[in-house]
Amino acid sequence: MSAWFASDLHLDPNTPEIARRFIRFLSGPAREARALYLLGDLFEAWVGDDDPEPAHRGVMAAIAALADTGTLVCVMRGNRDFLIGERFCAETGALLLEDPAIVAVGGTRVILTHGDGLCIDDRAYQRLRALVRDPVARAGFRRLSLDQRRRLAGEARAGSRAHLATAPEYITDVNAAAVEALFRSAGASVMVHGHTHRPAVHESAVAGEPARRYVLGDWHATASVLHWDAGGPRLLPCPA
Ligand code: MN
Q1: 118: exposed, middle or buried (C-beta count within 10 Å: 0-12, 13-18, 19+)?
Q2: For the domain bounded by 3-237, which CATH number is listed?
Q3: How far is the CA of 31 from the centre of ligand 1 (A)?
Q4: What is the pTM of this model?
Q5: Distance 208 CA to ligand 1 centre (A)
Q6: 78 CA from centroid of ligand 1 (Å)
């Protein structure tokens, strides 16, 4: 058994080299695995499953080709691609995971989350997150034209960049109490998430037992993925 975990590829038509690396990964190492978990922000922006953007279609075809070989592909929405929906899953053969999700990997219960829900010290961001997760707001956004949705997504990205440039680092990282609460409620001692682009393995104790949190990097600057095989989980540099 083996599984891969990746997040924060932020695929964008303007950075085709990242998509090429990802497609090589999908048609190479990922095929040896039983499962591939994509934990959010696969796309820099996803304005809806009806977007005909050719760069995204190429990635979707590569995911579908991997799923066809029998590798289980699971996709979780991130804060950039929270509009990934059922049509995306039907067209790629991917399974949509709720956030958080608990899966079994090699007999271990593992908590999967994008990670933005743990950044509760960032009040401004959490207000925005609550809005975009609201079903009524989502339905309203989906009714807009593709051009309107693209414009709003662009404005949201600019706002996010400005916010990240000024917010102190601890504010935009996960909150330790939120992490512990998730470990406790899930009854698991391993967690994998992305979002912060600060790849690391964090050891702690929850209810007197060791707990380990793997943070995935993004595919642009801090590139790292998690590979889990018979030897256990290991954080690795992104495939070249
Ligand atoms: Mn994110």
Answers
A1: buried
A2: 3.60.21.10
A3: 26
A4: 0.95
A5: 30
A6: 5
